[in-house]
Amino acid sequence: MSTPPFLTLPASARSIRLATARGEFAALHSMPPSGSPRGTALLVPGFTGSKEDFIALLEPLTEAGFQVVAVDQRGQYQTGGPADPAAYALELLALDLLAVTEAVSGLLPGATGPLHLLGHSFGGYVVREAVLLGGSTPESLPWSSLTLMSTGPGPVAAEEGKRAELLVSVLPLMDLESIWQAMREMDREAGVEQQLPPEIEDFLHRRWLANIPEALAVTGRQLTVEPDRVDDLAAAGLPTLVLSGEEDYAWPVTEQAGMAERLGAGYVRIPGAGHSPNAEQPGATAAALADFWLSVN
């Protein structure tokens, strides 16, 4: 889970509802001052996350000339979803993303430039699945590039997998408020409780309670069983960047670097960042992303 450093949108950004063939999705939409973007970035959050995970990237990316759309996936925060576990299968989340991509392409018809896709953490699974569903060649895909941020080739690391399995096991037994309080108590006992501004703590609480429990159960389980599909992704041939922090509790950075090598992709490690470079070092992260996207242009 990313913790956004602030919640106030920059002047360039607004909250929107994206109407798609698969329903409406909550999103943040940011435009460069010129109104004529050099490209468009579609940002997909991870497990228990939301579009706000990318809020600190909006201003530096728009200043670099990019239109940015960050979206809540089905079952997350302000998008919502049905109380049906089948709705959150990875393939269906990927189909959602393909529908969102089509809607994003229509925000500024003919003026959006190249479309760049980014997935953070669990969102990396979703963007990978979407690429594999979307076509067999780069020319058949709607995106010009792919960025895998703080994600890995297969299941999360063992300790993180245990935490995901614990959450999945208690979801049928406890409501989300009770689970939230239990997680906070565990953090206090472990001495890892974050001291956050009240508005950030309140947001994280509200966002957690807005999750669809069935989505948490299915996606949490997926974190522990996702197969390694890097070779399939490499065969798709889409220009790719792998970006991580200096360390990562979910996937070791050595594993992420190895994934980049197997993909024939660039690899950037952001100093001073952990699992969420987007929130922890947004300036350096935005600069690395803009450099990559401009190289693809």
From TrEMBL:
The record's annotation in Pfam families points to: Abhydrolase_6
GO: which molecular function terms?
hydrolase activity
In the UniProt record, does the keyword Hydrolase occur? yes
User: What InterPro entries does the record point to?
Assistant: AB_hydrolase (IPR050471), AB_hydrolase_1 (IPR000073), AB_hydrolase_fold (IPR029058)
Keywords of this entry: Hydrolase
Domain of life according to the entry: Bacteria
Can you give the residue ranges of the AB hydrolase-1 domain? 42-288
User: Which PANTHER family does the record associate with it?
Assistant: AB HYDROLASE-1 DOMAIN-CONTAINING PROTEIN (PTHR43433:SF5), HYDROLASE, ALPHA/BETA FOLD FAMILY PROTEIN (PTHR43433)
Protein name per Swiss-Prot or TrEMBL = Alpha/beta fold hydrolase
> What high-level taxonomic lineage is stated for the organism?
Bacteria, Bacillati, Actinomycetota, Actinomycetes, Kitasatosporales
